[in-house]
Amino acid sequence: xxxxxxxxxxxxxxxxxxxxxxxxxxxxxxxxxxxxxxxxxxxxxxxxxxxxxxxxxxxxxxxxxxxxxxxxxxxxxxxxxxxxxxxxxxxxxxxxxxxxxxxxxxxxxxxxxxxxxxxxxxxxxxxxxxxxxxxxxxxxxxxxxxxxxxxxxxxxxxxxxxxxxxxxxxxxxxxxxxxxxxxxxxxxxxxxxxxxxxxxxxxxxxxxxxxxxxxxxxxxxxxxxxxxxxxxxxxxxxxxxxxxxxxxxxxxxxxxxxxxxxxxxxxxxxxxxxxxxxxxxxxxxxxxxxxxxxxxxxxxxxxxxxxxxxxxxxxxxxxxxxxxxxxxxxxxxxxxxxxxxxxxxxxxxxxxxxxxxxxxxxxxxxxxxxxxxxxxxxxxxxxxxxxxxxxxxxxxxxxxxxxxxxxxxxxxxxxxxxxxxxxxxxxxxxxxxxxxxxxxxxxxxxxxxxxxxxxxxxxxxxxxxxxxxxxxxxxxxxxxxxxxxxxxxxxxxxxxxxxxxxxxxxxxxxxxxxxxxxxxxxxxxxxxxxxxxxxxxxxxxxxxxxxxxxxxxxxxxxxxxxxxxxxxxxxxxxxxxxxxxxxxxxxxxxxxxxxxxxxxxxxxxxxxxxxxxxxxxxxxxxxxxxxxxxxxxxxxxx
Length: 638
Description:
Elements: H1 2-18, E1 36-37, E2 47-48, E3 55-58, E4 65-66, H2 73-79, E5 90-92, E6 100-102, E7 132-135, E8 139-146, E9 150-161, E10 166-178, E11 186-198, E12 204-219, H3 226-230, E13 249-264, E14 271-288, H4 291-297, E15 308-325, E16 329-344, E17 355-370, E18 376-387, E19 391-405, E20 408-419, H5 423-426, E21 427-428, E22 437-438, E23 445-456, E24 461-471, E25 474-476, E26 482-484, E27 489-502, E28 505-518, E29 528-540, E30 545-556, E31 559-560, E32 563-565, E33 570-572, E34 579-580, E35 585-594, E36 597-604, E37 616-618, E38 621-622, E39 627-637
Antiparallel strand pairs: 1-2, 3-4, 3-7, 5-6, 8-9, 8-39, 9-10, 10-11, 11-12, 12-13, 13-14, 14-15, 15-16, 16-17, 17-18, 18-19, 19-20, 20-23, 21-22, 23-24, 24-27, 25-26, 27-28, 28-29, 29-30, 30-35, 31-34, 32-33, 35-36, 36-39, 37-38
Signal peptide: 1-22
InterPro entries: Porin_10
Keywords: Signal
């Protein structure tokens, strides 16, 4: 990785002298017809000059949008995080790739009828996340993040059109970072191949992809004595000198999915059609304990138990739908067949075959889109299915986007889901007792969410609110046993985001207030989360580069946090009260853009350079110390 980075910078220095930047949106107008320039002479050359509008991407059920080469504070929030997402409302573990603790409640549809552990989901691409491209010339993108002690993360995407109606893309993302503490190495990767094809009159259209994920991490279990961490003892400034709870345990989650969705429209792009969607996905979760760690966690356990545990899920889905499409209206309805398997390896029966639950599910699906004008869009989706082991499943997702006036926009959503708890909650087999369970008598989690946001031109502000009600909330107690709350959990979230501008100075702030009722003790969160960012942005070097620099403060009130279980990769009820939060995290940064390359350089958790680090992500898991984080984003339009 080190040598690759040097090569990357070497070629970065050479390429601007060799390749004309055709897509600098700050210098080229976004002309509607961007392809051919002809001066009228008989021997004139035809020159292709695409603009940024000719480089587009979309998901299967969204419209095309151009590559984002803008240089904004929102890009800074995203590309200083290893998962390329603004993580407001979360707090990261000490090593990149090790996940986060969520500081607010949110709807997680990807975990419905799925094995996906809560802390492994941050780099997982669902079918709805897959991008499909349309580019006039071959395009390559790089996103790089530096590691903690050593290593780093790199995502590379290459895409190319083959003719005007076929695009193929390949993407690889790899992360390897050695953490500050013993036994804290993280290794994440994914490989993605995607394609989009359509005939000239769009009577046939297909989306396909194959994606493979591997998320592996050494699990150190937190530090054994937090007092040693908080004392100003020079022996422990090197965090590897701190004793950790686990010294030889690792977890591994792998997922593979092959997906095809194709639509036949006998009467052209607008009218009746038939859509067929089919996919197969396999997920595996493994936990490997060292003998010493096993004795530490289960001193009274009997010998003969397997120290490597495994559980897995298989999902085959086949859907056929009738489709009716118009420019401002579309609808589809169909039947879905689904075969689900959930299995595990019994650690008490070494050599025995895996225990597997299998069921066939039949259900109905439908969707609706209404767009009376360009600034109004209503989308709704509905699915219902039934099975022997996992019961009824009902999901309704609805969203409205509306812009009536130039300076005002409105977004609203209404979601409902009734489903079995996560597969990770239903079964587990481990040598750490009493962490074994196989739940057959459960109730559906029933979740209702509604809310919305209003965007205002005044101070570039946004006001937002959400309300949740969850019945039969699934959680784990302090003994790693699955439970469901008898009281409903209710959550009210109110927040705002605004930016004040004065010449080249800007102040961006984001606030979130939360009020929990009912079963709030099983899902504790802070009552307030805030972020303030004062920055300066200007052109430099005769407008050859753009600079952005500032100071960001992130704060959340203290709360009685749940504990993180490395055995489940989930948060569980605390063994005793332990409060985290109440101390600000201060970062300073200097960012720069040169053409289509952007650099994000950030000094994280500055206060630990002159005072002791007393911040925690979760009980026994200290927040990261000061480090210089480097992020690079580079789009190459050939």
